[in-house]
Amino acid sequence: MVSLCLFVFFPHKLLLFIVTSIVFFAYAGLVAHYRLAWQVPKNIENTPVVVQGTVHSIPLAEGLRTGFEFRLHKMAGLDSQLHRVNSIVTLNWYGSHPILKVGDTWQLLVKLKRIHGFANPGSFDYAKYLLQKDIAATGYVRSGVQNKLLASHQWSHPIDRLRQTIIEHIKQVLPNSSYLPMITALVVGEKNGLSAQQWQVLQRTGTNHLMVIAGLHIGMISGLAFLLIGFLWRRSERLMLMLATPRASAIAALATAIVYSALAGFSIPTERATVMIAVFMLGIIIKRQLSLGLGLGMALFFVLLLHPLAVLSAGFWLSFAAVSVIFYGLGARVGQVTKWKVWVKLQLIVSIGLIPFTLLWFQNASLVSPIANAIVIPIVGFIVVPLSLLASVVSFISVPFSHLLFHLAVWVLSIAWHILVWFSGHSFGAWQYAVSNNFIMFSVVLGVLVLLAPKGWPARWLGIIFITPLFLIHPTAPKIGTAKFTLLDVGQGLASVVRTQHHVLVYDTGAKWGPNFNMGEAVVVPFLRQMGIGHIDMLMISHGDNDHIGGAASVLSVMPVAKVLTSVSKRFAKGRAQLCLAGMHWQWDEVKFAVLYPTASHLGLDNDSSCLLRVSAGDKHLLLTGDIEKTSEQFLLSKQKVDLAANVIVAPHHGSKTSSTLAFVKAVAPQWVFYPVGYLNRYHFPNQIVRHRYQTVGAQSLATDSAGAISFTLSQNKAIKPIAYRKAHRHFWWQ
């Protein structure tokens, strides 16, 4: 990236471009290698182990769970001796526990796992995210006498201790306020407390950046400091003789940026913003005017020097793209126009310029973003943030005055928030779309650049033509008489999609893990959008266990669903769902669907009431079994044994030994068996006995924990060739 900028601004330096490319590629590779060098030993992975280390981040409570980063100093091996380690892991401590302070040294009994995220088209890559943050493992604290505080030093991690103190004070001031997470995010950069509904409002209005301390807030606060110090400095002849006003203003702006970045914990986005500001402010201080290209290139150089793996982050590309688009779009345009027109034009340019990137990474582009940002950014940036920061400082001097300032900030924020809620409530406010290939991305970026070209650029209207692939190119649908099946990787749960040429069926939606995370929103919906699917013809929920029904509400809330079939219709709104009963059948695009189980007399049996669906494309058959167990399998063998034969089966109950009896396995006699299981799941699914049973009938197997999403095409007279997403899309950070 740095070498590319050098080549753009200095095209005659071809050798420089080549050398810097090699050097930075090698540097990034070396850093990645170092971060991946230490792994949790396989022989102690997911087993209780004693560790010693330091609380490395501010512990954040969410319900019964408290999450924090922990820097390992020592870890017990098989010999029970403590061995030296120097890696950061993320831990959760469930239930009641002692007060945790950042910087404290603890001995803990933990279970650790290697970095492992879900692997699906369109979904968030958790493993890549943790690699950027230099996290080596995840785990949780187990209760035990081994858990004890070893040392607590007041001056250990002083900045983070200060941040934790400020968070605790804000919680005392605004204990029950829905705006508490927002104020906390704006002051110290901890945004984990924001609810899923709040993030949805921000996403639909294109204002996610409002709750992230990065370029926007640091730029605005340092800009205010620049203007304020400049105004005051000019009032004193003595000060101006000591130091020129522009240099004093630049020093103040830079100092403000550093302090605000420190309050945010020197997170990567804040460091990136501070470096960019520092480059331009230092240019003023040393009286050397930097061109935009050189300044941006230097900022890019130092950012990647500090964080070479930042290129894996969407935030990295969005921040530099935003700055580039602003200067590109406003360059040679501003002239003699009023400031409010420049502000409106700025929002319009940024919103249009970032559309390709937001569609690529978030499958979403806000159509009301220019207006929403133009109204809300000044309110938040120039009123709410300064008031909140001032209140935080004053809290160490006068608590009552601090309370007054915080409540004033909340009152102003509530006005801005109601505006955003109003904008997000309109169906036309957000455009959901997934960029499905690189050609579309390249064409749209080119189109945006042409549209935003300076005035006088010939034929800017051609930019519209380059953008048309967004509307004309869609992922290829299956042919008539064939079905595309995908078993999604949702950890310990089940979610799958069957697609024919004109219809879509979703079978189960994975689990819900707390109020702000579920597999429907995190995996199922992004996958559907990535495949160009905008509606669901049928949502089938096999039964009422959380790992099958947990994501259903999110899918129904964001995706049009024509029909819902389930064995637990009472779990849905009245009249929304119908019971799935044996004998139901239909045909889509010459692909046949048949419900084999349950009968009316087999409802209310939990796992043994799971909907069993058979999908047939010519001579090829697929069985989706939910969590049926021995009882239902025996019933099926006695009543519908002939219909059980299938080429592919998704293993009943994730491969539990309470399912997949030998007689049932022989009746199905599959060529392939898929196991939807979580990595190192506590149930040890799939059971080895079950694996052996399928092997005895010659079935090949794949499991989602190692394969990721599994997809194949069901078609007459064609061999079934499953594609494992992890194998087809290899990344060095996938272990």
Written account of the structure:
It is a single chain. The protein has 735 residues and is α/β, with parallel strands linked by helices. The chain contains 27 helices and 24 strands. The strands form four sheets. The protein has an eight-stranded mixed beta sheet with strand order 15-14-13-12-11-10-23-24. Strands 16-17-18-19-20-21-22 form a seven-stranded mixed beta sheet. It is globular. The two termini are 26 Å apart. The mean pLDDT is 88.
Concise synopsis of the structure shown:
This protein has 735 residues and is of the alpha/beta class. Helices cover 44% and strands 18% of the residues. The protein starts with a helix and ends in a 7-residue tail after the last helix.
Helix content: 40-55%
Overall morphology: globular
| Biggest sheet statistics | 8 strands, mixed
State the strand order across the main sheet.
15-14-13-12-11-10-23-24
Count of helical stretches: 27
Q: For the residues shown, what is the average pLDDT?
A: 88
What percent strand? 15-25%
Rg: 28 Å
Find the structural class using helix and strand composition. Answer: alpha/beta
The N- to C-terminal Cα distance equals 26 Å
Total DSSP E strands? 24
| Low-confidence sequence ranges | none
